[in-house]
Amino acid sequence: MRCRKNVKDLSQDEKDAFIQAIEGLKAQDSTLHPGFQSRYDDYVEIHRSAMDAAVIAAGGTVTNPGWGHFDSAFFPWHRELLFRFEEELRAIKPGVTIPYWDWTRGQSALSTAWPFTHAFIGVDGTDANADRVMREPGAPSPYPHEFDPEAWTVVVTDNPGDPVVLRRAFGERSDAPGLPTNDADVTGTGTNYREAIGSATYLLLRARSEDLHNLVHRWANGSMISASSPNDPVFWMHHAQHDRMWTMWQEKH
């Protein structure tokens, strides 16, 4: 039995172990395309392929849902993706689990639930560098933390010519100025976390939860706004939160 933790409850040693496992997977050769990308990049490609399978018509209507998005498979497909990714992390660092980011509480750098720190997965991108996530200013060389955002090379992209660096632009989109909350409906969703958890049916839970899911992707922006969004390590913590939501709903129903 394993138990995923809230990111706010991780010790620095647990954070370091998680990052070391991610770095280890990024250093492993690909299974899908040996010699051309890493095993971590394989998971980015799998997710991108799932998104590419969706056909969205003019006006935003989904005419052909992807393997794991815009339809009932959203929760189980991502649960399986997280489980397999987590298994590979644990093969590198036994005992590691994917922490979940409760974005209803971790909404600023003042919160202990905030995962975007120099001592963990890096901070917001910088406008002067096209939203690229940079190292801690004045940090000595070699970089003192396990995760170096400037050395995190993006290999799998949505389109040829897309940036190959980790990018973030928190809250810069007009349709995603803030993160989901417990009670207040957020721009672009028409729902909130409490309503999603309280859904009477799975179909309603899925629809509401995916609205919140999409909002967080838009809010993080940069690498997270693409089909190849697992390039940003926060992707896994974001989806661990959704897997937690589904677990809570399953226990109730």
Structure notes:
The chain is mainly α. It has helices at about 10-25, 40-50, 75-90, 195, 200-220, 235-250; strands at about 55, 60-65. It has a two-stranded antiparallel ribbon. The longest helix is centred in the N-terminal third of the chain and has 19 residues, at about 75-90. The model has no long low-confidence stretch (mean pLDDT about 90).
Q: Rough shape?
A: globular
Structural class: mainly alpha
State the order of secondary-structure elements, H for helix, E for strand: HHEEHHHH
Low-pLDDT parts are none
Count of helical stretches: 6
Q: What value does the Rg take, in angstroms?
A: 18 Å
- Trace the largest sheet across and list its strands: 1-2
Q: How many DSSP E strands?
A: 2
Strand content: under 5%
Terminal CA distance reads 22 Å
Summarize the biggest pleated sheet.
Answer: 2 strands, antiparallel
Proportion of residues in helical segments: 25-40%
Report mean pLDDT, rounded to a whole number: 90
